[in-house]
Each structure stands twice: as structure tokens, then as C-alpha cells.
Amino acid sequence: MMATVQMVHGVPPSLSAKVVGSFAYLTVRDRLPTILTKVIDTIHRNKNKFFEEYGEEGIQAEKQTIHLLSKMRNELQTDKPVLELTDALEDVQNWNQYLERQQRQEGDQEDAVSWFKSPWLYVECYMYRRIHEALWLNPPISDYDVFNEQKTQSFFESQQAVMALCTHLEDIKKNMEDFSKNQLLEHFNKLLKVSLWGNKCDLSISAGQENSQKTSAIESLDSLEPFILVDDSNMVWSTIISAQTAGQPGGTTAGRVDIVLDNAGFELVTDLVLADFLVSSGLAREVHFHGKSIPWFVSDVTVNDFQWTIKQAMASNHKGMSKSGVQWQSYLKAGLWSYHDHPFWTQPHEFCDMAADAPDLYATLQEADLVLFKGDLNYRKLTGDRDWDHTVGFDTALRGFGPAPLSSLRTLKANIQVGLQPGQGEKLTSQDPDWMTSGKYAVVQFYSPTAGQ
Fold first, then answer.
1. How large is the average pLDDT for residues 247-266?
2. What's the CATH number where 193 sits?
3. Cβ 113 vs Cβ 99: under 8 Å
4. HSE of 233, CA atoms in CB hemisphere, 13 A
5. pLDDT > 70 in the chain, percent
6. Residues 123 and 166 in one domain
7. Domain final residue, candidates 81, 103, 136
8. Residue 120 sits in a domain of what CATH number?
9. In what order do the strands lie in the sheet with 255-260?
10. Given pLDDT bands bounded at 50, 70 and 90, which one contains residue 390?
């Protein structure tokens, strides 16, 4: 962290690679080019597949896509200006307007909006959108998911943990009818924490290196408890309970929970298990999942990943896993679960912009009784990816974003963290200098827009 930060109207500046040696700087200098190189390698390795499917046209598309991606990698490494997007996808205007906004903020200097000088959140999101553009401009391989192999591998490497978790869920459901409220709370807390720690399995942070869950997540919970820096689980629970009791006279109707997803693979399974528990226990009436509309940050969930994961579970020869998969498919069929994507999730905006820039999505989230935001990127967007002091309240950092009561479930992989006690951040820094970026620590932070009213 810089010793002094320039506040603009009380809001600190965006984290940026401008600060040499910062985590943002190291990400833009080292991690992003590594990810790009892997993407280029993946496309090249699949050359024969493209040829088999599309003949000579496939080979041309592969060459041309690699040319565009190599060009972008060069722009990144030499800190060139950020360019307008040139494809015809539905969000292209939003992206180019965002670039204009950045240029205006920098006083319209030609080269001011560049890879190292601009907000880290913006250029990192921009890189993934440019990867998508390079493919889209080169049919017939436009729909190719360059991260699919890594996501698939990560899922299969986590098989043991997935089986253990599905078995655990089936065991809970056998006795669910007889649970007291306290027992429900205990199981809820465990599965919420499993979903929290599932966020460790992030392929963009490991630049696509093997990063799967090998051990039983339930068994590791106690040993992980000391690493939760803020734990507002009780507020998450009481929000679910109060949504439940606001039903019709003489009966209760449960509320709606929305989960804004992060990673595919093991983390997605932890989210599905939590959602299954919420619906099957009657704690929630329905669950809405929000994923990405294009391949994003290496391992983020797209609709294909979502459907594929449920199909894999259904087809498993492990009893607990296939039973879970069949159940999940039936929730989708019955409308108790639904999957949505929206272009806003794959844009660079801070979430405090959502009401203005994506009012339809904001209105959708307002219908939820609770919104769970999974993972690090969502946290960065919730807090604007800015150089906040650690003791600033989570509510302050949200800067007016509050469509519904919300909670962030996040393991720390970027150097931003708010809502800590005085001295907590300094103590962590002295004990463990990488505490903000190692994925070793976690938070469950809560905010309700109605709390102070």
C-alpha cells in the first residue's frame, strides 16, 4: 500500500500498475502475459481439431486469432494505449464508452489510458474481453472457450472432494425433517463456509496452474476457521430467516437467494450444494444463479460450465454425486433454480455504477431477499478496487450499491480489504506480508441497505 493516497471527494484512487512493485503492477507485468501466452498455446495446440472440424478455414482462423492475441500481448508488455473494440457484440458500445470516460478523466491525453497507467481492474477485464474479440472476429472458431480444458481438468482433479461433499449433503437430507432450528443453522453455517473456501480454487490467480481441491472440504473447516478475518455469517442467516417469516398469515413463505457465481470446478459444486440445502430445507423458495456470458478470468462459470457440471454429476457412477446431479436438474426443470447471465458481469464497471449502467440487472437483484457475491473479482468490483484504508466500513466502500441485503464470500487474492478492526491489517502485515494476495485468508462480509433505517 502507498503511504499517502490522493483522495478524490473522499474516494481513494483505483489500484493500478502505475505503482511499481505493487500487486497490480506484478499482475500486469507477469501474470497477465503468462495467461495470454497460455491462451495462444491452447489455440495452437488445437490446430488439428480446427482443421478436422472446419478444414482450411479453421487453420486460417487459428492463425489470425493467434496474430491478434500476440499483438495484444505486445501492446500490454510495452504499455501501449488501450484500443477501442471492433467487434459487433452487444456490449461493444458500453466498452468503448467506458474507454472514453477513462480518457476524459485523464484529460484526453492520447496515451494516458494504457495498460500500466490505467486502473488495474479495467485493464484486466479488458484483456479477457479482447481475447473474446480475437476469437469472435475469426469464425468458425468464434465460440471456442480457450479456458475450457483447464476448467474441465480442475473439475476432474477435485473428484474426491466433490464426492465427499455430495455424500455429506445426502446424509444431511436423510434427517432434515427432524432438524431443530439450531441444527439447521449449524448445517447452513458449515455449507456456507464450504462455499467460502471453495473460492480458493481460482485458475486466474494461479495463471492457470493446477489448482484443485483434493481433500474433504467439510473436514478442513475447523482448521480454516482462524483465517476468517471478518465473519458476518450470523447476519446472513438472520436475513434468510427474516425473509422466511414475512409470509402469509397462518403460513410462511421462504425468500429468494441470488448467488453471483465465481469459479467453475470445485467452487461451483460448493455453490450448488449450498443452493440445494437452502431449497430442500425450505430456507429459500428459489435460487437464482448469475454467471458470465463469455469465458472470463480463466475459470469463471459460463452457462456451458453450469450445465456441463450438472450433467457430469448426473452421469457419475458415484451414488451421492449422481443423486445430487439428478436433483439439481429437477430444480432447474421445476424453476426452483434458474441460471442468468448479463453483459454487465463481464464489463469493467464498479458495482456502484450498476444502477445507472445496467438498471435492468439492478432491478433483477432488487427482487432477491439476499444476494451472495462469490469470490475476489466480485469483491474488487463491490469495493471499486480502490486503495481503501482497511478500517473503512464495507458499507462505505460499496458507495451506494445496495439492491438487496448482500454478502461477499471471498478468499483474499488482491490487495484490497475493508471492514477490519483498527490494527488488524498492520498485525497481519507484520505476521504474513502476503496476507492480502495468497488466498489463505477469507471474509464473509454483510451489508443491508435497510439496516440503518
1. 84
2. 3.40.50.10880
3. yes
4. 19
5. 92
6. no
7. 136
8. 1.20.930.60
9. 228-231, 442-447, 406-411, 370-374, 255-260, 284-291, 337-341
10. very high
